[in-house]
Amino acid sequence: MWSIGGEFWNGPRRGVTAMDVRTSRFGVIEIAEDRVITFEKGLLGFPDCTRFCLLEPGEDACFFWLQSLDDPALAFVVTDPAMFVSGYEATIRPEQAESIGLEHLGDAQVFVIVNKVEHWLTGNLQGPLVINTKARQATQLVLADKRWTTRHELVEIGSQLQEAISA
User: Can you give the pTM of this predicted structure?
Assistant: First the structure.
Protein backbone atom coordinates (compact mmCIF):
# COMPACT_ATOMS: atom_id res chain seq x y z
CA MET A 1 0.00 0.00 0.00
CA TRP A 2 2.32 2.77 1.22
CA SER A 3 5.95 2.73 0.26
CA ILE A 4 8.89 3.81 2.36
CA GLY A 5 9.47 7.54 2.21
CA GLY A 6 12.83 7.75 0.41
CA GLU A 7 15.60 9.38 2.39
CA PHE A 8 13.54 9.36 5.60
CA TRP A 9 14.85 5.84 6.19
CA ASN A 10 18.44 6.38 5.08
CA GLY A 11 21.41 7.40 7.24
CA PRO A 12 22.21 10.80 8.71
CA ARG A 13 21.93 13.79 6.38
CA ARG A 14 24.34 16.68 6.28
CA GLY A 15 23.60 19.26 8.94
CA VAL A 16 21.58 16.83 11.11
CA THR A 17 22.89 15.81 14.52
CA ALA A 18 23.69 12.11 14.81
CA MET A 19 23.98 9.89 17.85
CA ASP A 20 25.76 6.62 18.46
CA VAL A 21 23.44 3.76 19.34
CA ARG A 22 24.66 0.53 20.92
CA THR A 23 23.01 -2.62 19.59
CA SER A 24 23.62 -6.26 20.42
CA ARG A 25 23.32 -7.35 16.75
CA PHE A 26 25.07 -4.57 14.85
CA GLY A 27 27.48 -3.05 17.36
CA VAL A 28 27.55 0.73 17.56
CA ILE A 29 25.65 2.44 14.75
CA GLU A 30 25.21 6.10 13.93
CA ILE A 31 21.60 7.32 13.71
CA ALA A 32 20.49 10.81 12.78
CA GLU A 33 18.34 12.26 15.54
CA ASP A 34 15.63 13.09 13.00
CA ARG A 35 15.32 9.36 12.20
CA VAL A 36 14.10 8.37 15.64
CA ILE A 37 10.61 6.85 15.59
CA THR A 38 8.65 7.29 18.82
CA PHE A 39 6.02 4.80 19.98
CA GLU A 40 4.50 6.81 22.86
CA LYS A 41 3.06 3.67 24.49
CA GLY A 42 5.85 1.33 23.40
CA LEU A 43 5.07 -1.96 21.72
CA LEU A 44 2.93 -4.75 23.12
CA GLY A 45 5.00 -6.43 25.81
CA PHE A 46 7.62 -3.66 25.73
CA PRO A 47 5.94 -0.53 27.16
CA ASP A 48 9.22 1.00 28.36
CA CYS A 49 10.84 0.89 24.91
CA THR A 50 9.48 3.93 23.11
CA ARG A 51 12.31 5.03 20.80
CA PHE A 52 13.24 3.02 17.71
CA CYS A 53 14.97 3.39 14.37
CA LEU A 54 14.42 1.52 11.15
CA LEU A 55 17.53 -0.13 9.69
CA GLU A 56 17.49 -0.99 6.01
CA PRO A 57 19.97 -3.78 5.16
CA GLY A 58 20.09 -2.87 1.46
CA GLU A 59 18.44 -0.77 -1.23
CA ASP A 60 16.11 -3.52 -2.46
CA ALA A 61 15.39 -5.01 0.95
CA CYS A 62 11.90 -6.16 1.78
CA PHE A 63 12.75 -6.92 5.42
CA PHE A 64 14.06 -4.31 7.85
CA TRP A 65 15.20 -4.16 11.45
CA LEU A 66 13.20 -2.06 13.92
CA GLN A 67 15.93 -1.41 16.48
CA SER A 68 15.13 -0.16 19.97
CA LEU A 69 17.17 2.82 21.10
CA ASP A 70 16.17 2.13 24.71
CA ASP A 71 17.29 -1.54 24.85
CA PRO A 72 20.34 -2.58 22.77
CA ALA A 73 19.14 -6.22 22.71
CA LEU A 74 15.66 -5.45 21.39
CA ALA A 75 15.16 -5.47 17.63
CA PHE A 76 12.40 -6.83 15.44
CA VAL A 77 12.42 -7.89 11.81
CA VAL A 78 9.58 -6.01 10.09
CA THR A 79 8.15 -5.82 6.58
CA ASP A 80 5.46 -4.08 4.58
CA PRO A 81 2.61 -6.63 4.59
CA ALA A 82 1.32 -5.42 1.21
CA MET A 83 4.37 -7.05 -0.38
CA PHE A 84 3.10 -10.49 0.67
CA VAL A 85 -0.64 -10.27 1.40
CA SER A 86 -3.00 -8.85 -1.19
CA GLY A 87 -6.00 -7.07 0.25
CA TYR A 88 -4.43 -6.48 3.66
CA GLU A 89 -5.79 -3.39 5.36
CA ALA A 90 -4.95 -1.96 8.74
CA THR A 91 -7.85 0.23 9.80
CA ILE A 92 -6.80 3.10 12.02
CA ARG A 93 -9.43 4.90 14.10
CA PRO A 94 -9.45 8.73 14.11
CA GLU A 95 -8.20 8.93 17.71
CA GLN A 96 -5.31 6.57 16.88
CA ALA A 97 -4.36 8.66 13.84
CA GLU A 98 -4.56 11.79 15.97
CA SER A 99 -2.32 10.25 18.64
CA ILE A 100 0.53 10.00 16.08
CA GLY A 101 -0.27 13.30 14.37
CA LEU A 102 -1.43 11.56 11.19
CA GLU A 103 -3.53 13.91 9.06
CA HIS A 104 -3.14 12.17 5.67
CA LEU A 105 -3.02 8.40 5.11
CA GLY A 106 -0.36 9.01 2.46
CA ASP A 107 2.01 9.99 5.28
CA ALA A 108 1.65 6.56 6.91
CA GLN A 109 3.75 3.44 6.52
CA VAL A 110 2.45 0.10 7.76
CA PHE A 111 4.79 -2.65 8.94
CA VAL A 112 4.25 -5.99 10.63
CA ILE A 113 6.62 -7.84 12.92
CA VAL A 114 8.04 -10.98 11.30
CA ASN A 115 8.78 -14.30 13.02
CA LYS A 116 10.16 -17.62 11.83
CA VAL A 117 7.81 -20.53 12.46
CA GLU A 118 9.15 -23.86 11.19
CA HIS A 119 9.76 -23.32 7.44
CA TRP A 120 7.80 -20.08 7.19
CA LEU A 121 8.34 -16.41 7.82
CA THR A 122 5.11 -15.20 9.40
CA GLY A 123 3.76 -11.72 10.04
CA ASN A 124 1.70 -10.41 12.93
CA LEU A 125 -1.16 -9.02 10.84
CA GLN A 126 -3.33 -8.48 13.93
CA GLY A 127 -0.79 -6.10 15.47
CA PRO A 128 0.48 -3.87 12.66
CA LEU A 129 2.76 -0.90 13.28
CA VAL A 130 1.65 2.40 11.77
CA ILE A 131 4.31 5.08 11.41
CA ASN A 132 3.64 8.71 10.58
CA THR A 133 6.65 9.23 8.30
CA LYS A 134 6.50 13.03 8.64
CA ALA A 135 6.22 13.31 12.42
CA ARG A 136 8.08 10.03 13.13
CA GLN A 137 5.39 9.10 15.64
CA ALA A 138 4.04 5.55 15.63
CA THR A 139 1.58 3.19 17.23
CA GLN A 140 0.88 -0.51 17.29
CA LEU A 141 -2.71 -1.35 16.43
CA VAL A 142 -4.67 -4.37 17.64
CA LEU A 143 -7.07 -5.41 14.89
CA ALA A 144 -10.24 -7.36 15.62
CA ASP A 145 -10.56 -8.57 12.00
CA LYS A 146 -10.45 -12.39 12.23
CA ARG A 147 -9.08 -12.72 8.67
CA TRP A 148 -5.69 -11.77 10.05
CA THR A 149 -3.64 -13.76 12.54
CA THR A 150 -0.56 -13.11 14.64
CA ARG A 151 1.31 -15.76 12.61
CA HIS A 152 0.08 -15.20 9.06
CA GLU A 153 2.30 -17.11 6.62
CA LEU A 154 4.18 -14.64 4.41
CA VAL A 155 6.83 -16.71 2.63
CA GLU A 156 8.16 -20.24 2.83
CA ILE A 157 11.84 -20.52 3.59
CA GLY A 158 13.76 -22.64 1.07
CA SER A 159 16.16 -25.33 2.29
CA GLN A 160 19.28 -23.27 1.41
CA LEU A 161 17.91 -20.23 3.21
CA GLN A 162 16.88 -22.46 6.11
CA GLU A 163 20.46 -23.74 6.45
CA ALA A 164 21.83 -20.18 6.32
CA ILE A 165 19.43 -19.01 9.04
CA SER A 166 20.27 -21.99 11.28
CA ALA A 167 24.05 -21.45 10.92
Answer: 0.83
Please state, in angstroms and as integers, the Cα–Cα distance from residue 70 to each residue in 35, 91, 107, 160, following that order.
14, 28, 25, 35
Gap between the Cα atoms of 30 and 16, Å rounded: 12
Strand ranges, E, within the chain: 18-23, 27-32, 37-39, 51-55, 63-68, 75-79, 108-117, 120-123, 129-132, 137-140, 152-156
pLDDT in tens, 84-143: 999 998 999 999 999 999 999 899 999 999 999 999 999 999 999 999 999 999 999 999
Look at the alpha carbons of 136, 141, 147, 149 in this order and tell me if their dihedral is positive or negative. Answer: positive
Residue 158 lies in a domain: yes
23: CB partners within 8 A, 6+ apart: 29, 67, 72, 75
For residue 125, the enclosing domain spans 6-166
From the list 61, 63, 60, 43, the residue with the least C-alpha distance to 51 is 43
Number of independent structural domains in the chain: 1
The DSSP symbol for 10 reads S
Is residue 19 included in any domain, yes or no? yes
CA nearest 115: which of 164, 165, 69?
Answer: 165
- What's 96's domain CATH number? 2.30.290.10
